[in-house]
Amino acid sequence: MVKVAAPEDPTIAAMWREREEAQRSNHRPQLDGAMLGRPCARQIFYAFRWVLDVQHDGRTLALQDQVEARKDAAAKDLTEVGVTVLDIDPDTGERLRVAMLGGHVGGALDGMVQGLLHAPKRWALLDFHLHGDKSFRDLKKRGVAEAKPEHFAKMQFLMRRSRFGLGQKLDRAYYLAENRNDGERWAEWVYYDADLAERLEEKAEYLVGTERPPARISVESDWFECRLCDWQGVCHGGALPQRNCRTCAHVTADPSDGTWRCALGANEPIPLAYQRTGCTAHRYHPHLIEGEPIAHDPDTGRVEYAMKTGATFVDEGPDGRG
């Protein structure tokens, strides 16, 4: 006899739906330094260019709140055993942050700590992560560099940039992990790797400066990392990017001051809020379209593409057929 799944409780469904409807745009103003360790540079480029506003389901949003709550609890526990936890910038009253390229690339710190019992005088970067049971056990077995290379790269980037933005030459990080299932905690020292940190900065400079998406991690759409990627539809499926200033052919990122500038607007900086919607003159950057431009009308801005699927796409802006 086949067991039929019980319908979802309507109250729980309503709670998840409320969270989903309340979530705002997930477009980040900066390229998040925490992404630099990801294996697919194209995915990072898509995130920076706001190709897709990735939205999360209610359960995922609730789990994100759980991470923040456990992070606060861990910081409180550290202070109660005499560790100094600095997570707020005393000059701004906001979370400690680092940046580069005028602010186009940056990241937030969970904090800096001093007074750890096995290294009481050293300041260290604090990086906290909540893991499922399987992930936690793998972390303990293999260590953060092998089990969680993205986390490892994030710490290297933050330690590197802390030397410029925070005046701290952090040479180590205290990676504090917690098992979501049973509350077990595990910590590891992560030491500064100057070569890796510099390579990550070079990667960031390339991604901010390039107009062309980097190569795919795989040409096969069913490659395991591609199957799980939020941007798969645009990257492999020929879906159109979201319309906003960062996907527009007229707009470029200025690495000298962290602004985005529009060629149709006398190259003046575009306010962040305006970037999210753009204007009626928006035309897709041709490198973001999976096809070749075959016709262009300079008077109307109309661009016609021969898509790789064999179809024709006409970009006439937000108010046209495009």
If you had to describe this structure to a student in words, what would you say it looks like?
With 322 residues, the protein is of the alpha+beta class. The model has no long low-confidence stretch (mean pLDDT 93). Helix 1 packs across helix 3 (58-80) and helix 6 packs across helix 7. The strands form four sheets. The protein has a five-stranded mixed β-sheet, sandwiched between helices. Helix content is 32%, strand content 22%. The protein is globular and about 70 Å long. The chain has ten helices and 13 strands.
Strand content: 15-25%
How many H/I helical runs?
10
Which strand order spans the largest sheet, edge to edge or round the barrel?
A: 2-5-6-7-8
Number of strands: 13
User: Could you tell me how far the N terminus lies from the C terminus, measured between alpha carbons in angstroms?
Assistant: 51 Å
What value does the Rg take, in angstroms? 22 Å
Order of helices and strands: HEHHEEEEEHHHEEHHHEEHEEE
Which of globular, elongated, flat, extended, rod-shaped describes the shape? globular
Largest sheet data: 5 strands, mixed
- Which class best fits the helix and strand makeup? alpha+beta
